[in-house]
Write a structure and sequence with these properties.
- α2 runs antiparallel to α3.
- 74% of the residues lie in helices and 0% in strands.
- The longest helix has 26 residues, at 18-43.
- It is mainly α.
- The chain has helices at 18-43, 48-71, 79-96, 100-103, 106-131.
């Protein structure tokens, strides 16, 4: 019934793959951790390398969701947000390795990435709730 209205509800009888759901749950946690680590690096002299390492690991759930949203037909409704998050993640890496001017945009882009992650999580959990 709702599949025609919203594509993320397509084939609810198939469920939501656990890897996709756990990636959607892990990403906002990883990004919140990144904000915390950045604050610790700025104000408590924590090495920036830890922020960079966790940032690299945060790419794993993004790539997983983007691949699954494109490869699994009934998850294609998530593709716009998953690919958007992937693009924002790529931009985040580019901003981190750029000049000081570009680096100043890094926190703003991180907030956009966190927003996309929270939308993906909400859509994923809404799909899972309808399947139950």
């Amino acid at each position: 019934m709702t599949a025609g209205i919203h594509d993320t509800f397509a084939a609810l009888d198939q469920g939501t793959p656990a890897l996709f759901a756990w990636s959607a749950r892990l990403l906002p946690i990883a990004l919140a951790g990144q904000f915390f680590l950045a604050g610790q690096s700025l104000f408590a002299d924590l090495p920036w390398s830890i922020h960079g390492m966790v940032g690299g690991l945060a790419g794993v759930p993004i790539v997983v969701m983007a691949i699954m949203a494109c490869a699994i037909g009934y998850l294609r409704g998530f593709a716009w947000w998953a690919l958007g998050a992937l693009a924002l993640y790529g931009l985040q890496i580019a901003l981190a390795t750029g000049s000081a001017t570009l680096l100043a945009l890094h926190p703003f882009n991180a907030s956009l990435l966190l927003t996309a992650a929270l939308v993906l999580l909400a859509k994923t959990e809404h799909r899972r709730a309808l399947h139950s």
